[in-house]
Amino acid sequence: MESSSNSSGAPPSHTVRSNNNNNVVINPDGSDSSKIVEGEYGFVLEDVPRLSDYLSHLPTYPNPLQDNPSYSVVKQHFVNEEDTVAQTIVVHEDSPRGTHFRRAGPRQRVYFEADEVEACIVTCGGLCPGLNTVVREIVCGLYNMYGVTRVLGIEGGYRGFYARNTVSLTPKSVNDIHKRGGTILGTSRGGHDTTKIVDSIEDRGINQVYIIGGDGTQRGASVIFEEVRRRGLKVSVIGIPKTIDNDIPVIDKSFGFDTAVEEAQRAIDAAHVEAESAEHGVGVVKLMGRDCGFIAQYATLASRDVDCCLIPESPFYLEGPGGLFEYMEKRLKENGHMVIVIAEGAGQNLLSESLPNMDDKDASGNKLFQDVGLWISQKIKDYFKQKDWVINLKHIDPTYMIRAIPANASDNVYCTLLAHSAIHGAMAGYTGFTVGPVNSRHAYIPFQRITEKQNKVVITDRMWARLLSSTNQPSFLGLKTIQGLKIKQEQKQAGSC
Ligand SMILES: Nc1ncnc2c1ncn2[C@@H]1O[C@H](COP(=O)(O)OP(=O)(O)O)[C@@H](O)[C@H]1O
Ligand SMILES: O=P(O)(O)OC[C@H]1O[C@](O)(COP(=O)(O)O)[C@@H](O)[C@@H]1O
Ligand SMILES: [Mg+2]
């Protein structure tokens, strides 16, 4: 096969000029692999590392995709090397061009020959619908698009690299796994040991590492990448973002989220049927969402049967004017029944008042929460009992049932695109990135942008207002807080004019 040599030389650590004369800042403080490219009119590219940044004279090869009969219909075979995806697409005349990410997709030249690739896949953290689809599509995509036949499955999450045997994954062995929930590879929390993991990668001759997981996993992937780079290995480290909670920033949404919202409808429907069939019926549905209430918010908006949605981002209170109990009394008088949806991370401040000193963490260091569904159900029962109201409360907790199902059709397609974007990036020699859609276009995003903060429901956005207007619930914000938010909003608008 034809090969050409890349001569980028020794690891750069300063500002250099790119092909199109932009400023490129690589490793500004020497501590990480940030690559910021600054262009005209406020254009900023937050680029991702490439193997050639730290390995010199790497040969490249023509991309085999151009000879693939299935792709012969494609008009433009390859993504232009200079293509980027804008993070902000709502702009006005004077807006700077703003932050961009490198566009995902197949490149004209690749850094790996098919028979050179030793890929591996690992799934980490909590379950999420679609994990098996991503695994399947990495295996089949590598095989069908690039002729790669050697893919290993790492079992049981990060610790599987050094504590378990691997399984060989072939298009045949993964053929129908997308129809099953969970992950055929198994998963775990904790157990991240960077040195042991990279030793295992080196010992097994692995040169493409596909890591599927949430924010914790991507933090782990980032340190694996740094260690791989420090050792000077020709190994691409690619993160594929996963979380049912949808709390990963920058990307449009995470896979499995749509499936979760859809499945949550069944629980809300059941709660509604139970509630409306009884006198003063109250249905309480607990949904997942450790630090953010996206599943609860979207499930509520989709259902239209929910009277109150409680999420971690919007603090609430039970007693007194404007509180939950007052609203419940009003709603039960008006309508005879009501449905409450609560995200698992909501109201934890109130719970810790009743149950102090609960500071347990899981093996990954995530805080373990008290069961807010049980807690609020008991509080509601106690309140109405002392008021001599007979209510009929049914509490439904479908959380793990929702998480354990296979992905729905749209999540399956989304998982396929994620897997393909990840493969194209790895084959093109990109590394140290997470893949995901930004404003509907798949992009390669530096790890630190994914791990530096969490995506949250913004309660001053129109979407939350839509929810409030659909449920008619109180905002639980005091007059002072609302005024404060308004002033902030006005100051922001004045500043941007
Ligand atoms: N800061 C970190 N550095 C290295 N590994 C981490 C870090 N945070 C979490 N991990 C590892 O990532 C894996 C998944 O993390 P976890 O928080 O459980 O799930 P998720 O990836 O879904 O957020 C675990 O094996 C954990 O040890
Ligand atoms: O019982 P587990 O496995 O610790 O999972 C519970 C947590 O997993 C989640 O579903 C998702 O968390 P991750 O994104 O960290 O996997 C949370 O909503 C929930 O709090
Ligand atoms: Mg997490």
Automatic annotation (TrEMBL):
Keyword Transferase part of the UniProt annotation: yes
Cofactors demanded by this protein: Mg(2+)
UniProt domain Phosphofructokinase: residue ranges: 120-424
UniProt: substrate binding residues: T243, I244, D245, M288, G289, R290, E344, Y400, M401, I402, R403
Residues that, per the record, bind Mg(2+): D215
Location of the active site: D245 (proton acceptor)
InterPro entries documented for this protein: ATP_PFK, PFKA, Phosphofructokinase_dom, PKF_sf, PyroP-dep_PFK_TP0108
Gene3D superfamilies, per the entry: 3.40.50.450
Record keywords: Allosteric enzyme, ATP-binding, Cytoplasm, Glycolysis, Kinase, Magnesium, Metal-binding, Nucleotide-binding, Transferase
Regulation: Allosterically activated by AMP.
Region (Disordered): 1-33
Domain of life: Eukaryota
Catalytic activity, reaction form: beta-D-fructose 6-phosphate + ATP = beta-D-fructose 1,6-bisphosphate + ADP + H(+)
Subcellular location: Cytoplasm
GO biological process: fructose 6-phosphate metabolic process
Gene Ontology CC entries for this record: cytoplasm
Coiled-coil annotated residue ranges, if any: none
Pathways involved: Carbohydrate degradation; glycolysis; D-glyceraldehyde 3-phosphate and glycerone phosphate from D-glucose: step 3/4
GO molecular function: 6-phosphofructokinase activity; ATP binding; metal ion binding
Function: Catalyzes the phosphorylation of D-fructose 6-phosphate to fructose 1,6-bisphosphate by ATP, the first committing step of glycolysis.
Family matches, as PANTHER family: ATP-DEPENDENT 6-PHOSPHOFRUCTOKINASE 1
Self-association state and partner proteins as the record states: Homotetramer.
Family: Belongs to the phosphofructokinase type A (PFKA) family. PPi-dependent PFK group II subfamily. Atypical ATP-dependent clade 'X' sub-subfamily.
Protein's name in the database: ATP-dependent 6-phosphofructokinase
Source organism (scientific name): Spinacia oleracea (Spinach)
